[in-house]
């Protein structure tokens, strides 16, 4: 009797398969969201999350996004970069190079697991910047969505410094003067600092990715449209800065996520 | 790293990570003990600032196995399709996880969580005899209890103002709204003379009918369950505990089953790396001591 009840429940519960890719110090934690219904051509998306405190704040939205995609027949892989979430290692042991390797590994893994030849990728903030770098090196990425990519490292460092200083002020002390050693609970290694300082990409460089479908979700739509014309699909992310809100306060931006979903399945409004 | 992913519960939808103990403790003490780390609010099982992941691995180094997992609808776990309330889930799912681990040879459990995770740990510990210890980290009880919250905040306000130089300067230089201050003082005096009870407007979610926090604490102590009350120095939970424990605070301070710890200067979610490390050190030491006493 109980098992019959469980079977009934099972039919309605989302199929999320947690797993580790790789072993020991290189183990990457991931969740494979299995598509609910099959479509003629199987589609797969890999989600590249933001880093540090921003990931914690965006986790819920990205998981909900994965769930939305499974409902329209798309398999999704979410993963944690090494040194983040449940993956091996400490945050300060890693930087852009190892996180790009992780994206490569995640793509290779899901292709092998599902048997598809092409994947789409979606990145948020630094995740978008890293996803673009990876897409430039591969020929099996057929679609890329970059949600508020970080283009200017110095600007990003200023933002981190302000956030950390505001936090320290709220706690009643000042530790960060010039050199940033941590940002809201995540230690910054000299290597990561160097990577961020050297980050400088233009929107034109960003969309030079060799894939057919490109999409950017950005706040300043007009600026991007003027620069890039009709080469990409634009989605407005105005007023949606979920990475700036505490996890408890962050709302899931359903409308924006629905727009990305529509772009992905080719039914943009 | 030798961690394993878990899919638990009746529909396998409860996602968790199992971190086995790296080494056996002396005389195999604590080999049947597992530590469960419960969600802090809506933050997924890696914990705020990834502190649960790091804590599970630190516990493994101390010879203790740990599981961090997500309640239904939080983090990587799918939402439930039945009609259980969040209060029912808060105790039922940790029990389901313990059932799962019991089949793997773990019979005794230490439950811990920050904020709402502390609430779930406490309520589950009362319900389930397999829980040998619980760590309440920045515990705030039921947040719908407005009376309790206002008492805690009032305590915090007075403590802060009394010891803050700026507040005294403002008072002496006329930079305060005297009318408002005196009316607040009058209100406080009136309140102190009336009956001081903490009553929730919400129905009781306690596994014990109409039990207070100290009644529930006594249930745990009677069965020799260890309790760690760990608070952040800058968090309101210190005042919450003062209000909740009331006159029993002094008795509890003498009870060897209860440990009190403060992480000085820390905020509610241990945002700074130094505070995270301090919190983990306190917790590992306490959990290892608890495990040491188990055969």
UniProtKB/TrEMBL annotation, chain A:
GO molecular function: carboxylic ester hydrolase activity
InterPro entries (alphabetical): AB_hydrolase_Est10 (IPR053145), AB_hydrolase_fold (IPR029058), Hydrolase_4 (IPR022742)
Domain Serine aminopeptidase S33: 42-180
Protein name, per record: Serine aminopeptidase S33 domain-containing protein
UniProtKB/TrEMBL annotation, chain B:
Annotated transmembrane regions: none
InterPro entries: AB_hydrolase_1, AB_hydrolase_fold
UniProt name for this protein: AB hydrolase-1 domain-containing protein
Coiled-coil ranges from the UniProt annotation: none
Pfam families: Abhydrolase_1 (PF00561)
Protein source organism: Aliiglaciecola lipolytica E3
AB hydrolase-1 domain boundaries: 42-153
